[in-house]
Amino acid sequence: MGIVHADVELANAREDSLAPIMVSALVDSGALHLCIPQHIANQLRLDVLDKRGVTFADGREETVDYVGPVRIKFGNRQCM
After folding, report:
1. What average pLDDT does range 7-36 have in this prediction?
2. How many CB atoms lie within 10 A of CB 5?
3. CB–CB of 10/24 below 8 Å?
4. Does residue 28 surpass a pLDDT of 70?
5. Residue 45 above 80 pLDDT?
6. Distance separating alpha carbons of residues 63 and 15, to the nearest angstrom
7. What is the CA radius of gyration of the chain?
8. How far is CA 8 from CA 2, 25, 49, 70, 73, in A?
9. Could you tell me the sign of the dihedral formed by the alpha carbons of 27, 33, 70, 47, in that order?
10. CA 23 from chain center: how many Å?
11. In this structure, how many other beta carbons lie within 10 angstroms of the beta carbon of residue 47?
12. C-alpha dihedral sign at 40, 38, 58, 61
């Protein structure tokens, strides 16, 4: 099937005054969580809600910020 990307809009669900950000996201049909780079979280001024342990594709493990709430729009659909 190959690698699939989708253009999605990310926004801070608590601060409507902040402009949303359009990003090209890698689609993973088996993913359970959304992972966004720190610089995107900073631009959207997302609150740090928790710290979570993650395992990267190369096997590295790290504790990262769990941020939100983020609103995601794709086409005519949206969720948080």
Report:
1. 93
2. 10
3. no
4. yes
5. yes
6. 26
7. 13
8. 19, 7, 23, 12, 6
9. negative
10. 10
11. 14
12. negative
Instruction: Give the model's pLDDT for residue 31.
Output: 83
Element (DSSP H or E) covering residue 58: none
Cβ burial, residue 10 (10 Å; 0-12/13-18/19+) = buried
> What are the distances in angstroms from CA 76 to CA 41, 71, 73?
23, 13, 7
Distance CA(8)–CA(23), nearest Å, equals 6
DSSP strands (E only) in the chain = 5-12, 21-26, 47-55, 61-68, 70-74, 77-79
**Higher confidence at residue 44 or residue 32?**
44
Q: Which two tokens stand for residue 56?
A: 């990267």
48 band by pLDDT with thresholds 50, 70 and 90: very high
